[in-house]
Design a protein that fits this description.
Elements: H1 31-50, H2 59-77, H3 86-97, E1 101-111, E2 116-125, E3 132-139, E4 145-152, H4 154-160
């Protein structure tokens, strides 16, 4: 049946058929759902206070509102605005590693209780085949290097030995 309802990625997240530089969506988009959760929580509290003697209104409305408040506050406080993009993270990673970067991969990850955005950068040195590789975590808010690891490429060492 071709009329089935299917999930679909929003246009700004769908990379199929995309030509050009991809821009990661900013984490500050998390704030909007947080505001919506808080508005729904306020409505639940209002319904409980206004119609507390109605048959379908009970303490569950307050419990639901409490959960929505917690989730809403979390969404708002974890909606960080990223100041460092993936290109700047790659430059910071190259500086931290101390070798010229050939192939590299950049991935957005989150760390900590409040989901602070971080760039995870995997780099190989520019030689062919690459002799070294490194992994660097770059904070997406201020560009500082959170962690980095550099090692000889074991794939090259295994093929030589």
């Amino acid at each position: 049946m071709t009329d089935d309802l299917r999930d679909e990625l929003p246009d700004d997240l769908n990379a199929d058929g995309f030509v050009g530089a991809y821009q990661f969506p900013d984490n500050s988009r998390r704030r909007w759902p947080g505001v919506i959760y808080l508005v729904i929580a306020a409505i639940c509290i209002g319904v409980y206070l206004i119609a507390e003697d109605a048959a379908i209104v009970n303490g569950g409305w307050l419990a639901g509102a409490a959960v929505l408040v917690v989730v809403g506050v979390f969404s708002i406080t974890s909606g960080w605005r990223m100041n460092i993009d993936e290109k700047e993270a790659l430059i910071a990673a190259q500086d931290a590693l101390g070798f010229g970067v050939g192939h590299a991969s950049v991935q957005q990850v989150w760390r900590g209780l409040r989901s602070r955005p971080t760039w995870r950068v995997l780099c190989y040195s520019a030689e062919e085949p690459p002799k070294r590789r490194g992994l660097v975590l770059v904070d997406a808010l201020d560009g500082r290097i959170v962690e980095h690891l550099v090692e000889d490429n074991p794939e090259v060492a295994a093929s030589v030995g």
